[in-house]
Write a structure and sequence with these properties.
With 93 residues, the protein is an alpha+beta fold. The chain contains four helices and four strands. The longest helix has 16 residues, at 23-38. The relative contact order is 0.14.
């Protein structure tokens, strides 16, 4: 991950980068995501870890049944609302 972040010049895609990591290591990955973003590079973070997503995301594309349901932001929706949209418990507004 660090090598991809160091060499990237436009976009970094991370698929579940914290899935098998401990708390300390996950924190390091989130800090890496912030540093890449601060270099004005785009980061696509694919994750089911909603606290991590809400910690670093500007926009959240919610998928349901293989399709994008909606686009939310951490400022406009809570984690509970995002999960409800993902699971189908809440309708898309």
């Amino acid at each position: 991950m660090a090598r991809a972040a160091a060499w990237a010049n436009q976009l970094v895609i991370m698929d579940e980068p914290t899935a098998a990591l401990g708390v300390k290591e996950s924190g390091m990955v989130l800090e890496l995501i912030r540093s890449v973003r601060d270099r004005r590079l785009s980061v696509i973070l694919i994750s089911h870890n909603m606290p991590h997503v809400f910690e670093v995301a500007d926009r959240i594309h919610i998928q349901r049944l293989g399709r994008r349901s909606t686009l939310v932001t951490p400022k406009t929706h809570t984690m509970s609302e995002a999960v409800a949209i993902m699971t189908g418990a809440a309708s898309v507004e």
